[in-house]
Amino acid sequence: MSAITDERILHASPLRKLLGRPELGSVVGAIAVFLFFAVAADSFLKASSLSTVLYASSTIGIMAVPVALLMIGGEFDLSAGVLVTSSALVSSMFSYQMTANVWAGVGVSLLVTLAIGAFNGFMLTRTKLPSFIITLGTFLMLTGMNLGFTKLISDTVSTKTIADMEGFPTAHDVFASTLTVGGVDFKITILWWFALIALASWILLRTRAGNWIFAVGGNQDAARAVGVPVARTKIGLYMGVAFGAWISGQHLLFSYDVVQSGEGVGNELIYIIAAVIGGCLITGGYGSAVGSAVGAFIFGMTSKGIVFAEWNPDWFKFFLGAMLLLATLLNAWVRKRAEATK
Amino acid sequence: MARFRTWVGIAVAGVLCASLAGCSSTGGKRAEDARKAAAAQGKAAVNTPRWTFAMITHSGDGDTFWDIVQSGAEQAAVKDNINFLYSHDDEAQQQAQLVDAAVDKGVDGIIVTLAKPDAMKAAVARAVKAGIPVITVNSGSAESKEFGALTHIGQDETIAGQAVGEELNERGKKKAVCVLHEQGNVGHEQRCAGVQETFDGTVQNLYVTGTNMPDAQSALEAKLQSDTAVDAVVTLGAPYADTAVKARESAGSDAEIDTFDLNAKVAAALKGGTLGFAVDQQPYLQGYQAVDLLWLYKYNADVLGGGKPVLTGPQIITKDQAGALAEYTERGTR
Known about the structure:
By secondary structure, chain A is mainly α. Chain A has helices spanning 14-19, 24-40, 47-72, 80-98, 102-127, 131-154, 168-176, 189-206, 208-218, 220-225, 230-256, 267-277, 289-308, 316-340; strands spanning 178-181, 184-187. Helices cover 51% and strands 17% of the residues of chain B.
């Protein structure tokens, strides 16, 4: 035996490294779900079907990535679902009421959405209340404002169409266009999703901010003691969620021209589910961006796979719940094994 | 612990005994099964290949109205040798994705509701482009043709609303509340606007959370308490009529409750006089006709309606007609 005794500089075997990855459980789950539907649903493997599945996954995944980062940082955001609707409403109504170029509305929406995210983070770090309470408050306030302002300004529960306004075609291209690759149509949200995964993974694993996120999620007081700017990190994470909500919201607006003010409620839990299936610990300090993407992919496969398999979609939520439990149990088991064999 | 187990054992045994011995000779599951067995005598009456039709609606989870639409569609599917698939989502984006999934699946026909037409535009266009015949039902009579659907089967919501307004005039009402239970449903807005057009008194819209009955009831209760001049409440769905009746009781109001759509409870309440009138749009017919017309199109390229919506309503039902319909509502076809 050599003199090296510090386990941190020991080389771990590749297998052990793999077992320690947070997204392992979800990848195993995703492969299982994929194989399952490939067998159970005959049209599941068609390219166009997979593109629909990817699209469904991306609409969840764009939000699941920043929500996962936030969870690694040890916090929740219950306002994430309706924030998407708020963001779409702001850009639509600003453009319409001011008769402005659509891009002006998109810009204003970005500022407003980021401000709401910053508000969440600021309230959290200032009041030291649990994020569950703070964001539950913003969730309810946003739900009310979405409906109230839309009725006040447009006089109906949905916004007026902005499809004939200047700037709409280019904005549509950026947020809601369809790309044809090899005869198969892909929605551009898939690209946004992949870009966000790459960006988030880079931040988490290669930058100082990434270390801060893990640190504040793992042990906030210890992190503060070693000089991590806890407040700044958390506010930044909430603004990250807001940025995701902005992209999703613009996609909603530009693919459907109008926005329904009452939508988005309940989606915040779906984002959290995707992150948890993807291996994020609900207590913070552990998880990955790729994992949340896999979680979103499982979600997309299940929701559309049930249609392809000609099952009654009434059971969808049951499958989702079972999947959530299984993924979490598998994660816990794998982690225990990995730690025991160290 | 042992004692606890004994008690549990006694309780379980007791329940089992009661369920074996204490049969009810009327109603219940057995009566329902007997009715179903009688209804399910039908076999495919045609020898066309087994086509697959998908129906995608904007219904929320567990909405009784859509159960009736579905049973109509299933009845026609049995007759026409159709593999009938049903899916639904009350979020526009999800509903559009379900249509996309049906197109990917390569179904032979699509039946879709256009409650939020703008959101469904692209998905319906994709289906039409893929050569899949589309029939719209229930909501979307204005957009159906523009989107490239064969025909629309449903009731013109504005006309239905106008019929309600006229009926309210006849009954000498002065102040009505229109209760909307689905945020953002254009058809619902049209109904209330239609009431407003023909009604001589004033109409106020009240939004309630449709998926949360106690909440809907308390919202209406508060409204009736705060505004005692209200003498008519119009609900837009049959289950909400019953809720409105409860709200009226606890608010101590004597407003007349009227409703869109029909179910067993509404039929009974009409008969008993707790409800004023109901406006039916015959959901069974919407499901049945949609499947049947798709089949006719596939089989014989037939299209009904001549480019105009095929209307299934409005049909005003009062105390006099309710008796005959009670039996049909019981079996879930009206």
